[in-house]
Amino acid sequence: MAVERTLSIIKPDATARNLTGKIIAKLEEGGLRVVAQKRVRWDEADAAAFYAVHKQRPFYQDLVAFMTSGPIVLQVLEGENAVARNREIMGATNPENAAPGTIRKEFAENIERNSVHGSDSAENASLEIGLVFQESEIVG
Ligand code: ADP
Ligand code: MG
Fold it and tell me: How far apart are the C-alpha atoms of 30 and 25, rounded to whole Å?
């Protein structure tokens, strides 16, 4: 296994319920290290750029509205196999299908308001990190 980086986002449903610390604790307990972090509020252009890959999906407009509805926390996570490891810690997209102990099982409200984003491949991780962080903001 190699040390990797992945992009994580704590979504507006979670920041609204003051769950930032509890989510970070799960990431850290799961073996990942937060090497960059910032709290921001996206506008529509920010969300559209990030979710361009989902533009044709039926939930796209709702997703953009949700992701611009409140503050989010952008993070770069680092660790062994970080992309897959983060997806394990997050749990399935739909919290009804998420394994016990995962972030989404414990905290998500529904399939859309599911508390966290995590990159789904090393290639997308690199693209997503480059979209939202300067190299100088990442301190490993
Ligand atoms: P994941 O976040 O697990 O990688 P996707 O990339 O498929 O899932 O979807 C991106 C995000 O879009 C999800 O995290 C969720 O917020 C939202 N989403 C996905 N599927 C649906 C759906 N069927 N209805 C509403 N929102 C959805
Ligand atoms: Mg995805």
Answer: 8
Cβ neighbour number for residue 24 with a 10 Å cutoff: 18
Residue 11 identity: K
Average pLDDT (61-72) is 98
Average pLDDT over residues 100-123: 98
pLDDT of 58 reads 96
Tokens of 8: 């994580």
Q: Specify the pairing of strand 33-40 against strand 72-80.
A: antiparallel
Ligand 1 pocket check for 93: Cβ under 6 Å: yes
109 touches ligand 1 (CB under 6 Å) = no
3: pLDDT strictly greater than 80: yes
Of 51 and 1, the structure prediction assigns the larger pLDDT to 51
| Cα dihedral 15, 18, 22, 23 in deg (nearest 10) | -10
Q: Which one from 27, 102, 117, 125 is the annotated catalytic residue?
A: 117
84: Cβ below 6 Å to ligand 1?
A: no
Which one of 88, 89, 114, 121 would you pick to mutate in the ligand 1 pocket, going by the greatest count of ligand atoms within 8 A of its CB?
A: 114
